Amino acid sequence: MATATAIQVELPPLHKGRDGNGGQLEIVRSKARFKVVVCGRRWGKTTLGVFMCLETSLQGGRTWWVAPTYPVANIGWRLLKALVKQIPQCEVHEADRYVELPGGGEVWIKSADNPDGLRGEGLDGVVLDEVAQIRETAWQEALRPALADKKGWALFIGTPKGKNWVWRLFQRGQRSANWESWRRPTIDNPYIDPDEIEQARADAISEAVFKQEYEADFGASQLQVYPDFDRYLHQWKRPIPQFEMFYGGLDFAGDTIGAHKSAGIVSGMTTTGIMVALAEFKQSGVNVTERQLEWVATQEKVLRLMQTRLNHRPAGFHWRADKSQSAFIALTRAMGYNIVKTKGGTDSVQNGVNLVQRRLTFRGDGWARLYYLPDLHYFPDDMEAYHYADIKDPDDVQSKNPLKVNDDLIDATRYMIEGADQGTIGDPHEIYKNQLATVA
Questions:
Q1: How far apart are the C-alpha atoms of 176 and 169, rounded to whole Å?
Q2: Which residue, of 16, 53, 83, 352, has the fewest CB within 10 Å?
């Protein structure tokens, strides 16, 4: 590639797909201004995005690489720095994460953590990496206007996460002028060993997760019960705030062979109605009930000490468990813990799912109402894996309840949310909307 100053840069070769008729090269050659690429892991989206940024910036343009967080953005940043080492007089600004090219062009690495920080620049092009993890408002209110005066281009890349705003972008790419969209599975990358793909299939939590992550299958992701859940966006990255109440959910199990796992989760509720999951329990085997109750005792002690250490007002505890587990509930209550049974009823599962989903949704204020601490590992995995049955026969009717597979911690989460929201009159998003500025 040559610019007006005759700089020669050896960019990574773009592949043509496993069949030799498409791949990255087809996307770069497309005349569309807005390109949506829904692809599997390791397909080559980073190389594609950096290529397009450099192609424009070597001609004097300003481009941005925008990722949901800086840790995600660093993947593109490392490749960019490695490539510009070839360019004489190129300046790499490590602290601000941008490169300044001899012809006046610039490539900036940005995080979408704070959409307001993306305002105010005129851009010749922008790459939105892992776009399903970026809030739609970042595109609509900040990045799209930044492309207007220069009629800049946009590349949206990432894996699907349910029929959210990325699905709408993909659909637009199938029918609108100046837009084009592609779905590319991992296997389309000719440099990936097919045996590695099959090993990934065997190692996946479920077939639906594999199809989403490696086959870029929107259909598979629709089997998810909580498609709005995102392990990056719903991870709490701020200091521990003041909690007004602790809510917990418990799913008891026996210690016999074949019994499902015992599970528990506890969250703090802020004055603004935001819940942060603080600890989790998921075990099975002999004496699991005793271990589960020891966990409950430990959490109450640890969380009270945490509030004392932070000089926060003390908060009470409210635990909840399935009404069918009355013997375990009675035992827990006899030990002095505040625990009640779930409401139950014909549609109790679906009602609980709706309560959880309502908390996961990001509203216009930029906040969800359910987050989790980075220390929790079972919770994000189980939220992503929780799904409905796939319907093979078109004459069958989809069950309104999710599959009862590895759902113990998710059931406990549902009980916890029911305990917090079942008695709430109105939508918590509306009730607390004027208090969000007080969250630490």
A1: 10
A2: 16
Please report which residue ranges of 280-432 form alpha helices under DSSP H: 288-309, 326-334, 348-360, 378-385, 408-421, 428-431
Determine the 3-state secondary structure of 368 from DSSP. coil
C-alpha 374/C-alpha 354 separation (Å) is 24
Measured CA to CA, the distance from residue 356 to residue 433 in angstroms comes to: 18
CA–CA distance, 282 with 351 (Å, rounded to integer): 24
Name the region of 9 (left: φ>0; alpha: ψ -120 to 50; beta: rest). beta
In a domain, 228, yes or no: no
Structural domain of 185: 23-221
CB atoms within 10 A of CB 132: 24
Tell me if residue 281 falls in helix, strand or coil: strand
Which residue bears the tokens 């906040």?
A: 367
In the DSSP assignment, the letter for residue 121 is -
The enclosing domain of 85 has a CATH number of 3.40.50.300
* Segment (H or E) for 136: helix 136-137
Please give the average pLDDT of every successive group of 10 residues along the chain, which has 440 residues: 52 84 91 95 90 92 91 89 87 92 91 78 92 86 92 93 80 92 92 91 74 81 77 91 96 70 96 96 91 96 97 95 91 93 81 89 83 95 82 46 82 95 54 45
In a domain, 429, yes or no: yes
340's enclosing H/E stretch is strand 339-341
Q: What is the pTM of this model?
A: 0.57
284 and 164 assigned to the same domain: no
Q: Are residues 177 and 262 in the same domain?
A: no
Q: Are 124 and 151 in contact (CB under 8 A)?
A: no
